[in-house]
Design goal:
Blueprint lengths: L1 E2 L3 H10 L5 E2 L7 H6 L6 E4 L24 H11 L3 E7 L1 H4 L7 H12 L2 E7 L13 E8 H7 L8 H10 L26 H10 L4 H20 L1
């Protein structure tokens, strides 16, 4: 299932995954609604708004009344649904801010997740990590329940680090599937029935480089395989 409030990204999602249900507002989404619709959850992924965290914004933080304060809704869903894994993304300044109390925003993220029984790994992975032509710094936060931590010995063997070292040394952006088929324009897209220049640029600004969450997904699968082999 998807949860997306903006119309243009919803159209893009519907184009690529027409049979996947979409919900509009994370503030209204609940475990009961998902259960009613027959949806079970193993993984939650999300990028909560960055406008109040980014160095380009006013850095109002993640408190109540801010757009970035939708983090609280992400946390609520993790606590209610108890997924095996939760993966969140935001701008790198989440690690550093606010200016008057460096690190306080991220300390809250860690405290919130620990408070509902989740351990956390995090990595600052820019797009250039996989060879893209721009930096696009982002922090990726992988949370997993304490039960998984005990089963996999995660505290001694982080899920992500080994996979990241492997990928960075063996694979470049040009080698990813479909890389040779990119359109000539890397901003405005093509006349594909969906693209609208203004909305597309805004959506690209809010989007992620998909190869990075794919890499993280493979790292999770590797950890699961290792645990099964050791069992």
């Amino acid at each position: 299932a998807f949860c997306e409030i903006e119309e243009f990204p919803r159209r893009v999602l519907a184009k690529h995954w027409p049979k996947v249900p979409q919900y509009h507002d994370v503030r209204e989404l609940t475990a009961d609604i998902l259960a009613r619709d027959g949806i079970t959850v193993d993984v939650i992924t999300g990028g909560f708004p960055c406008q109040d965290i980014s160095v380009a914004g006013k850095q109002a933080g993640i408190g109540d009344g801010t757009r970035s304060g939708l983090w609280s809704e992400c946390l609520r869903l993790v606590g209610n649904l108890r997924p095996k894994y939760a993966l969140f993304e935001n701008v790198s300044n989440l690690l550093a801010g606010p200016t008057d109390q460096p690190g306080a925003w991220f300390s809250r993220i860690l405290s919130d997740l620990a408070g509902i029984g989740y351990n956390v790994e995090w990595h600052d992975l820019p797009a250039s990590f996989i060879g893209a032509w721009h930096r696009r710094g982002r922090v990726w936060i992988l949370a997993y329940s304490n039960e998984i931590s005990r089963q996999q010995g995660v505290s001694k063997r982080p899920i992500l680090r080994q996979r990241f070292v492997q990928e960075q040394s063996t694979r470049s952006f040009e080698k990813w599937p479909g890389r040779s088929n990119l359109p000539e324009s890397r901003i405005c897209g093509r006349a594909d029935g969906v693209s609208d220049v203004v909305h597309r640029i805004a959506a690209l600004g809010n989007s992620v480089v998909p190869q990075i969450p794919e890499l993280i997904g493979h790292a999770i699968l590797d950890a699961i395989k290792s645990e099964r082999a050791a069992a």
